[in-house]
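Hi all, long-time lurker, first post. I run a small reading group and we've been trying to get comfortable going from sequence to structure in the token notation. Rather than ask abstract questions, I figured I'd post a concrete chain and ask someone more experienced to write out its structure so we can walk through it together at our next meeting. Sequence below, copied exactly:
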Amino acid sequence: MTWLAAAAMAWVCSAGPSQAQLFGPGTGTTATQLRWTSDEPGHQLITPYFSTQGDNNTLLSWVNTDPVNGKLLKVRFRGAANGDTLLDFMVLLGPSDVWTASLSQGEDGLTRLVTPDNSCTLPASLSGVAFRTDRLQPELPADAKALHTREGLVEAIVMADVAPGDSGVLFNVIRPQKGLPASCDAAALAVLTQPAAITREDQARAVGLAPPTGGLMGMWQIIRLSNYASYSGRQHAVAAVDAQGRPAVANWAFAPQTDVAAGSAGLAQTTDPVLTLNGLSWSDLPDLSTPLAGTSAQAQVEAQHSRGEGRPGLANEFVHTVEATSVPGATDWVISQPLRRYVVAVDPRSGQLLRLPGVSGVVLPPNGEMGSMVCSPAGLEVWNREMNALSDAGFALPQPWRACGVVTVVTFGSVQVLQAGLTPLGRELGRPGVYEAGWAIFRSRALSQDGLRHGPMLGYSATSLRNTAQNGNYGSVVPHVRVLN
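-- Answer (accepted) --
Happy to help. Here is the structure in token form:
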């Protein structure tokens, strides 16, 4: 039985009134579709890239814009190479609450999370926690595993609202009392860690949970300590909306924070090929494929990939000037494909390529020092400021040119702005005096003949400028523009 057939069988076995209340439509659910957006709050947030490579630190924040309801969040950090889970936990935000954290590289090379925030979390203590490596390919040496923890993307998912009212047990725990921090009472929060405690909608409402209404926004910032430059932006949102495109109440998407195996009951809530094949725990759910609208994880993922119709690409500008100029410049592009993990991935146990039916065009190169990762053909169309298109005189593109991993960093020139070490692409793409500045389109080739497996792709251009006369360092970020021509 293939992993997809196993998932389908799990849905047949587990579907029913009780399961539909944990995952799926509940009383008041109005969402019919999802909208990817960069200028409004949502039910899911995606940070396209974090980095603790070199002397990079990453700062993160999540904001509940809802002044009435709290939010129960699942936060998950995924590696840039294969999208493997590096760390996951719950955050409970009160109305109008904010939760912040920072990432840095520990002495052992592993990324560590630090938070000074008083918002409630499960586990209760997160400050100083190291990213895990047990989901990575076991044959990798320790230093390679540590490197895999230093780059990736972040998912944040609103699993449920925390509602006020007579049954608001959890609301009273997460709300500050008379200017004091929230109590975060362990006994009250324990219900969120017990697999059998909340299996129906009435049980969820009895402790003050309600179907998620969204309202989540967030920011990210990468700070390079050596040159005092920083790069920042808004997290990308996925909003559940109704048939008219208005903000809507999404499905229940609650799973307890525990490593207890989810079994067949959880398989229908994800298209993750690795977890479907090897088994998953409740803490693996929900993920970006868990349905916010409708009841099919596969249908939701395919609907989001249909955004790739045509010849999808990301367009932006770049600068690459020689060191001898008065203001040397360099540019990196971040190309993030947050749904790639749910379509195609490497099984860390066997090293085999796992993918949805119909997905083609991806390759698994020989296992290198950083392990196996999914790669697909990519293209870069480049113009300088005088309308001259790419030529061999201006750029030397390696053949074949492939984008690897769920996050790829493209470097224009010889200077790495973001110090990527896991999935860097390019290097020496520009030649000073010929293509010092201009614009380009990055295209990830189709992963299937029907053109439905392109994306979505997110990211930005990060540019470093140095004023050598005044010893100044500057960093700027410009989001990519999606093109279909």
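A couple of things your group might point at:
The first helix runs from residue 3 to 14.
The chain has nine helices and 28 strands.
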